[in-house]
Amino acid sequence: MAKKKKSAPVGPSALPFERPIEDVRSRLHELESLAQKTTHDLSEELAFYRQRLERLTQEIYADLSPWNRVQVARHPNRPLTSDYIQHLCQDWVELHGDGVFGDDQAMVTGFATIRGHKLLLVGHRKGRDTKDRLACNFGSAHPEGYRKALRKMRLAEHLGLPIVCLVNTPGAYPGVAAEERGQARAIAENIYEMFGLKVPIVVLVIGEGGSGGALGIGVGDRVGMMENAWYSVISPEGCASILWRSAEGKEAAADALHLTAPDLLKLGIIDKVVAEPVGGAHNQAEAAMEEVGQQIANWLDELAKIPLQELLRQRQEKFRRMAMAEESLQALFPPQTRAAESGTDPAEVDSVLEVDPARKLGLPKKPETH
């Protein structure tokens, strides 16, 4: 009996659902290495595996689940705010400190030029290696981080510079010290003040957009998300832990939260989904960053043509529309769909949902225990 060939091991940075892709990529690398050492013509085999790799990547990434997208958003090789600064920003000058307590490494601010636009860039900083990640609290900012961001945004307003915010955080830092220094108040003040800043504001979720940590720099005239980013009031693991006292339901929670870019575009929470290269931004980082840079420039060109008072009016109106929860849910869950899911007559859906609102959101039932 022929011995069954083992699958190539998944690389240290590969995601579980990427195993078939990694198998083909591993074989392709073996052939490329062999082609350099032999005189045999392996061009046909190389072309075959390259086409197969491209086709397989397209097929897998065309059918990602919400939980898969959360995994992609957290990929260790995904471009971070520091990468965007290095790749897109000219004349970068970092600004430090909140003027009160300290300089939070989880929040970066600075002046820069992107595609000819002078601006203030504000973003969550996660860090690439273990040392930097610990210094940045894995992208979870303290109150002084949000106060630093607001202090610099006010400076940008004084100088008449537009503001670009790159969101990438699992949430604000939840420690006792952060709460003692006024975490909730700092985020609330940022949200309130950003509505009135008299300069254009562009917000882009480049990875994770978790809860108030994201909203602290998330109020803008244009809000976008990268194709494989997520944006929600809570992480899937946190939602599952609250509902079922276990993170095992994270995949079901990701489905129920509707935290992906297409869902949030449909709900009117964001204005645009920024496309990523096939295989995710981590697969072709430079191409992804170029796309982001062009989109930022397009938005700034568009906003520069809007008179200031009209800009402020549109900004406030934009977020007021988000508060119309019933209309948003009607767009995502038409009565016919909700009736079919709940097994209820369409005419009775609203009364049923008043009694059991979880059914309106499509929340899964608590897993049975034995």
Q: Main attributes?
A:
18 helices, 3 domains, about 15% strand, about 375 residues, alpha/beta
Q: Can you characterise this structure?
A:
Helices cover 50% and strands 14% of the residues. It is of the alpha/beta class and 370 residues long. It folds into 3 domains: 15-31 and 47-63, no CATH class; 70-323, 2-enoyl-CoA Hydratase, Chain A, domain 1 (Alpha-Beta Complex); 327-356, no CATH class. Strands 1, 2, 3, 4, 5, 6, 7 and 8 form an 8-stranded mixed β-sheet that branches. A hairpin with a 2-residue loop joins β2 and β3 (117-124). α1 (19-37) packs antiparallel against α2 (43-61). The longest helix is centred in the C-terminal third of the chain and has 20 residues, at 285-304. It is globular and about 70 Å long. It starts with 18 loop residues before the first helix and ends in a 10-residue tail after the last helix.
Distance between the termini: 42 Å
Q: Architecture of the largest domain, CATH level 2?
A: Alpha-Beta Complex
- Residue stretches low in confidence (pLDDT < 50, at least 5 long) are 1-12, 349-362
Structural class: alpha/beta
Please, how many helices?
Answer: 18
Report the biggest beta sheet as strand number plus sense, adding barrel if it closes.
8 strands, mixed
Return the CATH class of the largest domain: Alpha Beta
CATH topology of the largest domain, which one?
2-enoyl-CoA Hydratase, Chain A, domain 1
Order of helices and strands: HHHHEEEHHEHHEHEEHHHEHHHHHH
Number of DSSP strand runs: 8
CATH fourth-tier homologous superfamily of the largest domain: 2-enoyl-CoA Hydratase, Chain A, domain 1
Measured by DSSP, the beta-strand proportion falls in 5-15%
Return the domain count.
3
